[in-house]
Design brief:
The complex is a heterodimer of chains A (339) and B (342). With 339 residues, chain A is an alpha+beta fold. Chain A is 27% helix and 28% strand. Chain A folds into 2 domains: 3-66 and 170-338, Aminopeptidase, CATH 3.40.630; 68-155, Elongation Factor Tu (Ef-tu), domain 3 (Beta Barrel). In chain A, the strands form 2 sheets. In chain A, strands 1, 2, 3, 10, 11, 12, 13, 14, 15, 16 and 17 form an 11-stranded mixed β-sheet that branches. Chain A has a 6-stranded antiparallel β-sheet with strand order 5-4-9-6-7-8. The longest helix of chain A is centred in the C-terminal third of the chain and has 20 residues, at 319-338. With 342 residues, chain B is of the alpha+beta class. In chain B, helix 7 (262-275) links the parallel strand 14 and strand 15 (279-281). The two termini of chain B are 30 Å apart. Classes of the chains: A alpha+beta (339), B alpha+beta (342). Chains A and B meet through helix 3 and strand 7 of A and strand 7 of B.
Chain lengths: 339, 342
């Protein structure tokens, strides 16, 4: 299965934290008996490939949760009140279509006052999330019968191929990373690893403060974290961004392992895989911040995919970067396995 | 009527570029008209013969165009600059999908913005206007972008046609394809009295098409079928809602473009009462429609407007109640014989 197909499939799933069951069954059906797959109590998914007692133990992490909303209450006219789950961009939410995941899925829209009736100043600011209301076209009694407090809500988004290399969807942060890991796992499972056990960790609740990474239990000498980062765009600081299609972004930070990072850079250079450098002072804002804090410590590297419009329903990714990432990780694992 | 409305909402017809919408309407109404033609501005004009001729000539109008944007230039990196056409709240733009009409068909794009993570709190909450934003169509260079779109191409924000759980309709361009749907149904029905139906262009940029069409048609009476802004939302006090979904056609006594003919206004409300057809008076002097042009041509035209109450007007996610489509259709059908006798 091509990584693009995997990604497209993942983009149809609602993976707001606490809702990872659909990803677990998707992973089980994709891997069959080619990998050992388990879930822990917080909702992390572990996909183990290679020999259990292998000499090299590598963990590759990609958070699988996505941002969204949760229904908190009903307004008197039947509209829904919500709270944010993760760092929702209030700009991207404004006036957007949504899907409310109850026993059935309901389509609705964030209510807005149209320009004709606005007063001066109304259109100068975005409403805060707790001022938002979702219109699902039902009265309060109808809504209360069909929808429960705690139901999850996503911005409606289609997976779209914008051009040969660019795809657009909500939550490419970090379904792109998850798709890369699944594609990598399926490749690695084709031929036996001799001395290596690779654990793919699809961790939950990253968007809520790296909580899945906090809870994750594993045994590894090296950790590679896969996440998304910021693509170049007019008005974005160039030192904090990478060009889409310019290769994966290799992280450099005081919390990351210089030696592991250098090893990965060497593999990329030898194989001619395009990379860019992302310099992060202090923390990285990714699961690397948490996964490194283990008894005795662990070597950790961070590789990110540059995307645009992060945390909107229209993130954009370059498929060349996604394929480079899989190529880089596979080469790294195979070379380590030979040594 | 929902099936017809979906057919009408599918094509994109930004002001000045209504051809695709006109083609769908022409196709629908051709067998039901006695004369059908398009004027130089692009207005589609249909004459419907009834069993009798009215005392004064009656014109019905609904506008085909919708709000959207036009591509103004392309950057070296292949991003498109654009200007909005019609009154679009700039807050609707960031992160939204767009479809651009090009000579090679529709091109998908996204209105991008720098991620909030990279901005100061003030910048991250700042409303950016159309001329501060770009559309990304996935092109890596100006040449690649120019191979897909041309300067002057128009497009809209994307909003699929959806029937919601309670039967309400959520879609782009209901303003004023909903009015067009009612007018088409009137043309398809048997009519006691003759009338002229006009599907106008360029309403959203100053009711220009209606001025051109009405000047040629020279009616004595005009009935404008548009969509008007319903503000029956969660946090709006009842006296500020203007009108509400499900309560029937919205009849105006006055808006920003027209002081409506009092006799016709009373006639419409009296008809609704007599025939027990749901109707509501627009409870605000706000907005405008093709009446703004029509009522003041060549000595004046006695004009009334009956509008579909519509939430989130000028967004890609308008909401109407299909019950109101039926109410407006019934009400217009019922007033035509009465106007014919005036």
């Amino acid at each position: 299965m091509q990584v693009t197909e995997i990604l497209e499939k993942l983009c149809t799933l609602n993976l707001i934290a606490s809702n990872e069951a659909s990803l677990f069954s998707e992973a089980c059906s994709l891997f069959g008996d080619k990998a050992k797959i388990k879930r822990d109590k917080i909702g992390n998914i572990y996909i183990k490939i290679g020999a259990e007692n292998a000499e090299n133990k590598l963990l590759i992490d990609a958070h699988c949760d996505q941002i969204g909303f949760v229904v908190t209450d009903f307004y008197d006219n039947g509209f829904l009140k919500v709270a944010a789950v993760g760092g929702v961009d209030a700009r991207a939410a404004f006036g957007s279509r949504v899907l409310v995941y109850s026993k059935e899925t309901f389509e609705g829209v964030f209510a807005t006052v149209p320009p004709h009736l606005q007063k001066g100043g109304d259109s100068d600011k975005f409403p805060a999330i707790d001022e938002l209301a979702i219109d699902i076209g039902l009265s309060k009694s109808e809504a209360e019968a069909l929808i429960s407090r705690g139901d999850l809500v996503l911005l409606k988004s289609e997976f779209t191929r914008l051009s040969e290399n660019k795809v657009c969807s909500a939550a490419l942060d970090n379904k792109a990373g998850v798709a890369a890991l699944i594609a990598l796992g399926l490749k690695l499972a084709q031929t036996d690893l001799k001395n290596t056990c690779v654990t793919l960790l699809l961790s939950t609740q990253e968007e809520l403060g790296l909580r899945g990474a906090f809870a994750a239990e594993f045994d590894a000498d090296e950790v590679i974290v896969i996440d998304t980062s910021f693509g170049s765009y007019p008005g974005a600081p160039s030192e904090k961004t990478g060009k889409l299609g310019g290769g994966v972004m290799l992280g450099h930070s005081p919390i990351l392992s210089r030696s592991l990072t250098a090893k990965i850079e060497n593999v990329a250079n030898e194989k001619g895989i395009l990379i860019q450098h992302e310099i992060l002072s202090e923390s990285t804002g990714t699961n690397a911040d948490r996964l490194t804090l283990r008894a005795g410590g662990v070597d950790c590297a961070l590789i990110s995919l540059p995307i645009l419009n992060m945390h909107s329903a229209s993130e954009i990714l370059d498929l060349r970067d996604l394929n480079s990432l899989i190529d880089l990780l596979e080469t790294y694992v195979r070379e380590a396995d030979e040594k | 009527m929902i099936k017809l409305l979906k057919k009408l909402c599918t094509p994109i017809g930004v002001s000045g570029d209504e051809g695709a919408v006109r083609a769908v309407i022409e196709n629908e109404i051709r067998p039901y008209c006695d004369k059908l033609y398009t004027d130089k501005a692009g207005n589609l004009i249909a004459e419907k013969k009834g069993k009798k001729e009215p005392k004064g000539k009656i014109m019905l109008a609904a506008h085909m165009d919708e709000v959207g944007f036009i591509i103004t230039s392309i950057t070296d990196s292949g991003l498109l600059r654009f200007n909005c056409i019609g009154g679009i709240d700039a807050r609707q733009l960031i992160g939204k999908r767009v479809a651009i009409c090009t000579k090679n068909g529709l091109v998908d794009g996204v209105i991008g913005a720098v991620a909030p993570h990279l901005l100061s709190k003030d910048s991250a909450s700042k409303v950016l206007k159309d001329d501060e934003l770009y559309i990304n169509i996935g092109a890596d260079s100006k040449d690649e972008a120019l191979s897909l779109v041309s300067l002057g191409d128009t497009g809209t924000l994307v909003g699929d046609f959806t029937v919601m759980a309670g039967g309400k309709i959520l879609a782009r361009a209901l303003d004023d394809r909903a009015g067009c749907a009612v007018l088409i149904k009137l043309l398809k029905s048997e009519s006691e009295y003759s009338f002229t139906a006009v599907f106008t262009v360029q309403e959203e940029i100053g009711c220009r098409g209606a001025l051109i069409a009405a000047s040629a048609v020279k009616p004595d009476f005009a009935v404008v079928l548009d969509s008007t802004t319903a503000c029956d939302l969660n946090d709006i006090p009842d006296d500020k809602t203007v009108c509400a979904l499900g309560c029937g056609g919205v009849v105006s006594f006055m808006d920003r473009g027209c002081a409506y003919d009092r006799e016709l206004f009373s006639l419409v409300m009296q008809t609704a009462e007599d025939e027990k057809i749901p109707a509501q008076v627009k409870r605000a002097v706000a907005g405008a429609n093709d009446s703004a042009s029509i009522h003041k041509i060549a000595g004046g035209v006695k004009t009334t407007a009956i509008s579909l109450p519509c939430r989130y007007l000028h967004s890609p996610n308008c909401v109407i109640d299909s019950k109101d489509l039926d109410s407006v259709y019934k009400l217009v059908s019922a007033i035509l014989p009465r106007i014919s006798a005036l």
